[in-house]
């Protein structure tokens, strides 16, 4: 028994080291003087913070961060609301054809971005939504929908039917049941889905690269791709730019860590 526990902890420690060592390497690289040549994981002789200022200015991070925040600010609430309504309709209301619709959303999980991004570009171009925030927001919300609907449908399927029936006996309509009964007990699942949506929206690269031709209106990850091409040899500057781009996601995860883990664990136990 003790051997099994020790083995599990050993595996977790090993996985943590595999994740944290490269991350520590990026931090140390960003603190080297600009233009330094690095050989693996090394501690800088002179700590330099100017790489972050240079990366912010040369990478036009103000405009890129603004675009990323603007897109995520619309994508996350829109996607979460639609996924919650769809999951409620499929799991609780059992709308006509709910089995077929559920299967369709599951099949949507198998579609890779590379397969549909070109066709999506031509479709949005026909309605004038390329090179615009609206097009990016609608495209991301649609692409994230299969997982969100599946996630919320699975969660609502685990809710005791007696709870819903009791609310209906008291005269509550469908939307009232959702808003006042199910949503308050579903915050872990909703919070987890929101954090996942924020991560996916923030890290979206290919979609933005194809849909948005204006460099000043691209998001931070897509702008980082161009920044890497321009400063290939300056490793400290690239490391600082990478840390700037991933910092908001790290902060969000740390703020919602308990709710995120609670939602993941709850889904695993109920599943």
From TrEMBL:
This is Carbohydrate ABC transporter permease. One of its GO terms (biological process) is transmembrane transport. Belongs to the binding-protein-dependent transport system permease family. It comes from the Bacteria. Pfam families: BPD_transp_1 (PF00528). Keywords: Cell membrane, Membrane, Transmembrane, Transmembrane helix, Transport. GO terms for cellular component: plasma membrane. Its main location: membrane. It is found in: Cell membrane. Residues 65-256 form the ABC transmembrane type-1 domain. It is a multi-pass membrane protein. The chain crosses the membrane at residues 12-31, 69-93, 100-121, 133-152, 177-200, 235-256. PANTHER family: ABC TRANSPORTER PERMEASE PROTEIN MG189-RELATED-RELATED, SN-GLYCEROL-3-PHOSPHATE TRANSPORT SYSTEM PERMEASE PROTEIN UGPE.
